[in-house]
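User: Let's play a game. I give you a shape written as tokens, and you guess the letters that built it. Ready? Here's round one.
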């Protein structure tokens, strides 16, 4: 009769490297892992497969308004600044040709050039005068400091939508109330819309909004002095109103399915502008 077997059991081998004996096991799946496959965890070690599964199951942290919390580069802000500078510089040697094609002009909108409702917020007056250069510099400065902060809080898509909607709001009010024989450049209207939305966001988070309100009033006052006789101030008012409504739509969207609520709300704001323009076209056709 054979005697008892006193041979020690062999050590298990790493499940990813079958030539490497190991006494360590993954804390999640309990599979044996070697030193190369060991990833420090809060307790013990985890294998690469469990580490990857854990990362996929974790939701990326988001801001109160739905943007992923990451070190944003303000790409949309920089693109908008580039567009403003490019259109301004191209206007001077071409005699304002760029502005003529992109500006808000009610007469041309009535003829079917509806893109002007959106491109209105993407241009400055490029005459090359001191006041036009000063206006461009001020708008770029505000966009640089306010735009990057807002973009990091909202994310690039929401931020771009907010800017375009604020400009669209200004263009809509101009179409409804301004004379048809005027043309307008509306980057200032889009920017005051951003400031109005930013005040809403700060109100939502309990921050002091007096600085934003002061800057908003200052920009509005300066534009009233320059553009009062040409009805450009109507675009500023439209930008403020639509910017504030869009900001409230983003800020107070229910947390459950927040992205859907925000998309529907901003779509509704855009639809409201389109309906207002269509109503005038129908009524005064």
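Assistant: Ready! My guess for every position:
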């Amino acid at each position: 009769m054979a005697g008892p077997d006193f041979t020690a059991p062999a050590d298990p081998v790493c499940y990813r490297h079958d030539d490497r004996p190991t006494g360590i096991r993954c804390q999640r799946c309990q599979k044996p892992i070697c030193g190369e496959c060991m990833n420090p965890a809060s307790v013990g070690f985890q294998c690469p497969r469990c580490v990857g599964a854990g990362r996929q199951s974790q939701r990326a942290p988001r801001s109160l308004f739905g943007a992923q919390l990451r070190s944003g580069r303000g790409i949309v802000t920089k693109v908008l600044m580039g567009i403003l500078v490019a259109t301004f510089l191209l206007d001077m040697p071409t005699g304002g040709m760029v502005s003529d094609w992109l500006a808000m002009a009610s007469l041309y909108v009535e003829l079917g050039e509806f893109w002007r409702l959106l491109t209105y917020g993407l241009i400055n007056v490029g005459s090359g005068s001191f006041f036009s250069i000063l206006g461009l510099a001020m708008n770029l400065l505000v966009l640089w400091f306010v735009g990057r902060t807002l973009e990091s809080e909202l994310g690039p898509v929401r931020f771009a939508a907010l800017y375009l909607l604020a400009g669209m709001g200004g263009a809509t009010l101009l179409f409804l109330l301004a004379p048809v024989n005027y043309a307008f450049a509306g980057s200032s209207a889009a920017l005051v819309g951003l400031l109005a939305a930013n005040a809403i966001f700060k109100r939502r988070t309990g921050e002091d909004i007096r600085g934003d309100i002061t800057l908003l009033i200052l920009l509005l006052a300066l534009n009233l002095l320059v553009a009062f006789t040409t009805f450009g101030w109507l675009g500023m008012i439209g930008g403020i109103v639509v910017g504030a409504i869009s900001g409230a739509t983003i800020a107070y969207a229910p947390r459950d399915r927040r992205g859907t609520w925000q998309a529907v709300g901003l779509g509704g704001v855009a639809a409201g502008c389109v309906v207002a323009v269509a109503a005038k076209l129908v009524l005064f056709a």
